[in-house]
Model the fold of this input.
Amino acid sequence: MSVIKIESLTKYYKRLKVLEGVSFSLEEGQILSLIGPNGSGKTTLTKIISGFSKADSGEIKIFGRSIDEFKKIKNKIGLVPQENNLDQDINVLENLIIHSELCGLNTKIAKERSLNLLQKFGLDKYQHEDIRNLSGGTKRKIMLLRALLTNPKLLILDEPTIGLDPAIRRQFWNIVIELKSQNVSTIFTTHYMEEASFLADKIAFINNGKLILNGKPQDLIKNMLENFVFEMKEKISIDGYKSYIYEDKTFIFTSNKESLISNLKLKKIDPSAIRETTLDDLFLYLTGERL
Ligand code: ADP
Done:
């Protein structure tokens, strides 16, 4: 049974179509990364899956249940939204206990779980600290920890590592990897292609509300493009190759470097770089936009 199964999801904000015909699935223990530029609909999608927003049409099943039965699945889902929504006026432990109580845990268990998780993440020294005194990275970690209080089987992270320094980002990913080993599935949005290809079992590109490509990171390039890209400082066109032009530069894909080199020599064109194709190239090739 898929953890998430979405078919033809469409969402409007008033007359603005924000998501159109989005379909994908996620299996137990899989990590899926949603990649797309600002405004492409990623946050809206995470809000719908975590029950904070309603789709206008389409079918959404989570743990085999329709999203309309959200109350029955709510505690199996842990959400870390993009904005800090911790209560600034109370301390860390109080934030965690109140959240657990809202999720239906009794106070004793709530306190026990909160303290265990704080200790596990090396954050117990902050338990009596007011939220406003914490660094941005610590606040994000507390939000992640809060999402884990109900032992969720599905974690939804909206731009979890944006603005974090590399060490804290790394800690975040170690937690996601550890959860995967316990069969927890994760869906996360990001702007960082490197992070997505390192962590995700599946990547989904979103652009203008449409899911334009979805698959294993290593298969996406293989199925769509060649493994090398030649960069040219000028706009040129050359038949028989996949290519794109971005900011007056031309990018040409090939699996046979020697043949393209001789082809370009005939035209007296020197490439400014020859390198391996990346997912950024693929995104640009498909959308004409940089992340
Ligand atoms: P992303 O997370 O990819 O940046 P969002 O899902 O936040 O994209 O936004 C997608 C589109 O929906 C944008 O055009 C945004 O302005 C619009 N939008 C997002 N939330 C609302 C809202 N509550 N009301 C109206 N429009 C919204």
